[in-house]
């Protein structure tokens, strides 16, 4: 059987013309599968018969037509002897060559036959042949070295030797000693990430010690490329890079989760250089709450320092616009684990230094008293040190590409990404935008760009984020604005009311009225208002409001007389109010209760004598102080007095003797220490 290339070479035509001849002359053929499709193999007898009918010189039919042979593509130079004849195109090597490789070999064979014919006609040397060939075939130009190499390869291996090496299957590469390869892999697979040349030097030094052949740089490059990508990444870049690039991930189906059911929150620092209120150069942060189903941002806050206040502000913005979610998912940062915001981890219990049993006595539940607990929002904490646990991390990449990089003061995501023009903004801070300007611009970006972008994540179905949120939205859980205002305030742990009110974060707060002043030594807790500085709201342990308290001013040593007079006037006013309250409570001015009690008892005694009742015994006669000197003590009393004086004197003597003994021992010890020192 003969393929298109062999038929074209035998008949001196192109492969396309050979296929047309086969269709026109109805040559017998069979198809065989090859890479990329199928190819036709024509009966050699039909091809040779057609060639003879055209007057072409063809070999005898010979053996049966069952396998491809080299007869049709025999070289023109018949003097090559056994070298050319020994290269049979029908052997195993030729059978494994794909169709494209055979076409390449046939094309090279045509060049060689043209060169043999040029040489047989004695028209000149190979240089003249190359010039003539390139002039006639500009699309198939060859060089002297190429034709010479092809001629040598054909003489040594026949037609299969003309097949390009990249078409030959299972070509064995250069063999490397396993011990040298192991040393190279051990030196290259390190987290210091040495290059191939460095690891190659270590491996070659080991090869010289073993006395084996030194591989080339290309061989070591091949050894490095043969190592699987997951192995390269985890060995050279570490576990995090492996998780980000090669590690498998858990797919979560959010299609059954309604929108506005779960919010995910996190902080992100914008790579934009700007100025704060005091003119300092800073990189602002954004605290965001993102809907889990639609990936739409429902609440955010631009600031310069992430804390619990920024979390509550972003959450309040989302609640005002879209209502309350069923649950939120946050990370394990200290600001998110704050007891005033989420109540902390559920394994934590409230402890009060003054009285640890206070929580059990008063039924204080910190989880319920937190902002999320007061609003009935469930809190779920992500796994520690696992950024992939929160879907909002992916959104930060979009913000970085679509927002941060469009600013002239963009600083770059890393050192290598740092633009050169950033130095101009650092030298001229007034050219940088302010945080307030970034806040307003970022609001427009989220509302009109990010939330309107289509999302290809699971559950969003390729819709815009805002459309997916409205389509799959759950019923809104609205809350009264006043209730929301108080619930968003961070609560403190139980506090004891002192003389100056309550102390929150080292600052004293006291009420304008007398509510806290009359609740001294009682346990309360306070809620801080992030929108009103210097104001807290005091509640009892049963969540009943008590009063509004303001921070007390601190006076310096050089405070003015008017300021001190006003403060002292306040003290006198509170004292007067307390005194007036006592009068109101007692119903009038103070009376002589002792005289009233004596008069009452005399009246009772008189009524008892008049009724013939038993009178009380007469009182004993009191002895005045002036009469004590004239009294003579009884013998028993005098004996007891003298015994007490003697006992006191004996105790004094024993104490003095003990002190003398201690001093003597101390003196001897000091003298002994001095003698040892000398």
Summarize this structure briefly.
With 678 residues, this protein is α+β, with helices and mostly antiparallel strands. Strand 1 and strand 2 (37-42) form a beta hairpin.
SSE topology sketch:
Blueprint: H1 4-11, H2 15-25, E1 29-34, E2 37-42, H3 44-53, H4 82-85, H5 92-95, H6 99-120, H7 126-136, H8 144-157, H9 178-188, H10 196-210, H11 217-226, H12 229-236, H13 239-245, E3 262-269, E4 274-275, E5 281-282, E6 285-291, E7 297-303, H14 308-322, E8 327-330, H15 358-362, H16 366-369, H17 371-375, E9 378-381, H18 392-402, H19 422-427, H20 435-450, H21 465-471, H22 481-487, E10 490-491, E11 495-496, E12 502-504, E13 507-511, E14 523-528, E15 535-540, E16 545-551, H23 561-586, H24 593-610, H25 635-677
Helix pairs in contact: 1-2, 9-10, 12-13
Describe this structure in words.
- The chain has 678 residues and is an alpha+beta fold.
- The chain has 25 helices and 16 strands.
- It is elongated, with a radius of gyration of 51 Å.
- The N and C termini lie far apart (120 Å).
